[in-house]
Amino acid sequence: MATVDQGPDAEIPAPPWKRRRPPAKARQPLSQDLIVDTALRVLDAEGLDAVSMRRVAQELGTGPASLYAHVSNKEELLELLLDRVSGEVSLPEPDPARWREQVKEVAHEIHQVLSAHADIARVPLGMIPTGPNALRLNERLLGVLLAGGVPPQIAAWAVDRIYLYVNSDAYEGSIHVTKQRASGLEPAEYMAGFLGQVREFFTSLPADRFPATVRHAPELMSGDGEDRFEFGLELLVRGLESYVRGAGKD
Amino acid sequence: MATVDQGPDAEIPAPPWKRRRPPAKARQPLSQDLIVDTALRVLDAEGLDAVSMRRVAQELGTGPASLYAHVSNKEELLELLLDRVSGEVSLPEPDPARWREQVKEVAHEIHQVLSAHADIARVPLGMIPTGPNALRLNERLLGVLLAGGVPPQIAAWAVDRIYLYVNSDAYEGSIHVTKQRASGLEPAEYMAGFLGQVREFFTSLPADRFPATVRHAPELMSGDGEDRFEFGLELLVRGLESYVRGAGKD
DNA sequence: TTCTACGGACGAACAGCGTTCGTGTCAAGT
DNA sequence: ACTTGACACGAACGCTGTTCGTCCGTAGAA
Questions:
Q1: Mean pLDDT for all residues in chain B
Q2: Whether residue B95 is found in the same domain as residue B60
Q3: What CATH number is given to the structural domain containing A198?
Q4: Within-domain flag for A52
Q5: At which residues is the DNA-binding region annotated (chains A, B) (predicted)?
Q6: Dihedral, CA atoms, A57, A60, A65, A70, nearest 10 degrees?
Q7: Which of A218, B33, B55, B207 is the most buried (most CB within 10 A)?
Q8: Is the CB of A65 within 7 Å of strand C?
Q9: Residue among B93, B102, B110 at smallest CA distance from B150
Q10: Best residue in B122, B127, B202, B235 to probe A by mutation, most A CBs within 10 Å?
Q11: Is B55's pLDDT higher than 80?
């Protein structure tokens, strides 16, 4: 049916057995940035579990094998994804007089950015971030502490501990978001149901075996995630403060 | 060859096409406890990633479907596994005079038990433990804090934060163990290699863009996991102490 | 201009995962 | 002796990360 010579780019209707990629071709040239972009879109839309090599590839109109030319494995993709997100964190200029507030500001900022991107907080818990933006955060947080007069060794370890705290709390928070999303309920509905279950659980305990727990069930249940995050941060900062006052001797 | 009537349980050598389960039958009756036992064995031997429904079933000489009669899904199995492990934690009797030390003792105890069982610490990070042994820990830790004069609301939140800290640090630690195990190297070899990489990374940074990081690279790298865990614990306890001293007003 | 290399793209496959369905079997209750 | 119901479980579904070998389009060499 089709004549042979029409020039190489003429609109030949159908030599279909050799036409390999008609639907997905003439795309963008598939770079690492593009892959991370796509992964970020999937993350925000459907959560970290949806960020699979296959899913990202599908979103780009190709197969999973194509990604491995630009990203050595999934772990690297997640590192790149985390660092992309970390770029959204804005940081203050160190001010010696306000170091306590600034430590909290940085912590809140990181927490907020992580929480804004589904359960991305699971990633830094499974590795030590070494991307350029992670370095930027490290540098600033360390700078704030040093400016505040925290001894260098204390400040260095404190950076590590504060990171661990922020990441783990953000991860814990993201679990609830994930479960709420999976349940299909409204956030308020879900939270009410969850709190109700916990309340029932605590108050139904035998008071003789768990006296403190039953007696203080209201305190154990009071406060939302934000309150508890703030409280833990306050604990850490107060602890650090004790090293500044007595900086001369331990 | 085989005669027909020998009684139903006689030793018939081979009607092989209908003999369904000759290798794996006449086993233990496959209870929930037995499943958790087996999962624990796999966990200790090969890590949490090896604890799959298929693997546990295989270890019991059966298929994965058989487990679902005793355990509703993998999440429940992991909860049971965690609570089994939590039973190994031994707890002190609250002593008002030693509350700071006791908080640390409990934290260390939990940390140690979690670390003794591969990367089981990943489990409590993904859920709120509600098993009987988790309750036992809650009750005791809360009791220690209250005995020490920590205000109830502070104590209640502190339990939550201390848990989060212990779990997340134990998890972070288990990552290194897992990677070391996967690398096939000796622990010392692996650690040396890892520290060397980090050292090289820090010292190769541009000092003008990351002055604090480069200047304090030794402090950032000093201390092993145990030192850092202890330091974070000290921060938390010092923070709590500040609430005890000024218990009257905030 | 023609040929040759080379690197990116990618279809297919491998081994594993959690979970469900339908069937099979055995023991206890009627 | 027969029925009932709980447990056991083979097979399958749809998913995962990763690798192999092959294809193609282009850039450089002849």
A1: 87
A2: no
A3: 1.10.357.10
A4: yes
A5: 52-71
A6: -110
A7: B55
A8: yes
A9: B102
A10: B235
A11: yes
Q: Check whether residue A62 has its CB closer than 7 Å to nucleic acid strand C.
A: yes
Total Cβ atoms within 10 A of residue B11:
6
What is the distance of C-alpha A142 from the center of its chain? 21
Distance A79 CA to C7 C1' (A): 25
Chain B 77-136 residues whose Cβ is under 7 Å from strand C: none
Co-location of B114 and B36 in the same domain = no
Cβ contact, residue pair B172, A236, below 8 Å: no
Which DSSP symbol is given to B19?
-
Q: Are residues A212 and A148 in the same domain?
A: yes
Same-domain pairing of B212 and B147: yes
Task: Give mean pLDDT, residues A116-134.
Answer: 94
Please give the Cα distance from A103 to B219 (Å, whole number): 19
B211/B78 Cα distance (integer angstroms): 45
Least confident of A48-57, A238-247, B172-181, B225-234: A238-247
Inside any domain, residue A96? yes
Q: Is A106 helix (H, G, I), strand (E, B) or coil?
A: helix
Q: What is the CATH number of the domain that holds B62?
A: 1.10.10.60
Are A41 and A103 found together in one domain?
Answer: no
Within 7 A of a protein CB, which nucleotides of strand D?
A: 7-12, 15-21, 23-24
Instruction: Report CA(B10)–C1'(D17) in Å, whole number.
Output: 51
Cβ–Cβ of A156/B222 closer than 8 Å? Answer: yes
Question: With a 7 Å cutoff on the CB, does A62 touch strand D?
Answer: no
Counting the structural domains of chain B, the total is: 2
Q: Is residue A48 part of a domain?
A: yes
Residue showing tokens 């057995």: A17
Give strand letter and number of the nucleotide nearest B72 (CA to C1'): C19
Is there a contact between B43 and B118 (Cβ–Cβ < 8 Å)? yes
**Count of pairs with CB atoms under 8 A, one residue in A, one in B:** 141
Please name the residue that has the structure tokens 């604890």.
Answer: B51
**B142 to A216: CB separation less than 8 angstroms, yes or no:** yes
B36 inside domain = yes
Among A172, A246, A194, which residue's Cα sits nearest to residue B241? A246
Task: For residue B228, say whether its CB is under 7 Å from any atom of strand C.
Answer: no
Name the domain boundary from A72, A102, A123. Answer: A72
How does pLDDT run across B114-168, given as a tens digit for each residue? 999 999 999 999 898 999 999 999 999 999 999 999 999 999 999 999 999 999 9
Q: What Å value separates CA A7 and C1' C2?
A: 19
The sign one gets for the Cα dihedral A32, A33, A38, A43 is positive
The nearest alpha carbon in chain B to A140 belongs to B212
Return the half-sphere exposure (C-beta side, CA atoms, 13 A cut-off) of residue B80: 19
How far are the Cα atoms of A20, A26, A233 from residue A59, in angstroms, in the given order?
Answer: 19, 15, 39
Residue A58 lies in domain: 32-72
Whether residue A51 is found in the same domain as residue A109? no
